[in-house]
C-alpha cells in the first residue's frame, strides 16, 4: 500500500502505488523463504535484500511494507527485540499462522 502523504496524482501516483505493491510482494516472498521460524527484523530484511537480491531500498520503505503486510494479516509483529543496523532494538516479525 502506498500512503500518498505528498498528494501525488496521475501517472506519478500510479507508479508509486505499483512500486509499493511490488515491494510488499518481494518482502512477503522473503518471509516465506528466509528464517521465518525465527522471524526477521527490518534490518535483517535490509541485509537480505542487499546481499542476496542486489536491492537497496530505504529502511523506511521496508518498514512501511512490513506494516502494510501486518495490517493485511500476512505478518505479525512480535514482542521479541533484536539489535538493528543502527544499534537500536527492533521488533521481530513473523508470518501470521
User: What overall geometry do the principal axes of the alpha carbons give?
Assistant: globular
Q: Spatial order of the strands in the main sheet?
A: 1-2
Low-confidence stretches: none
What is the arithmetic mean of pLDDT? 86
- Percent range for helical residues? 40-55%
User: Structural class from helices and strands?
Assistant: alpha+beta
- CATH architectural arrangement: Orthogonal Bundle
Short description:
The protein has 97 residues and is an alpha+beta fold.
Keywords:
2 strands, 16% strand, 51% helix, alpha+beta, 97 residues, globular, Arc Repressor Mutant, subunit A, two-stranded antiparallel sheet
Can you describe this structure?
This protein is of the alpha+beta class and 97 residues long. It has one domain: Winged helix-like DNA-binding domain superfamily/Winged helix DNA-binding domain (Arc Repressor Mutant, subunit A, Orthogonal Bundle), CATH 1.10.10. 51% of the residues lie in helices and 16% in strands. It contains three helices and two strands. A two-stranded antiparallel ribbon has the order 1-2. A hairpin with a 5-residue loop joins strand 1 and strand 2. Helix 1 crosses helix 3 (59-71) and helix 2 (42-53) crosses helix 3. The longest helix has 24 residues, at 10-33. The mean pLDDT is 86.
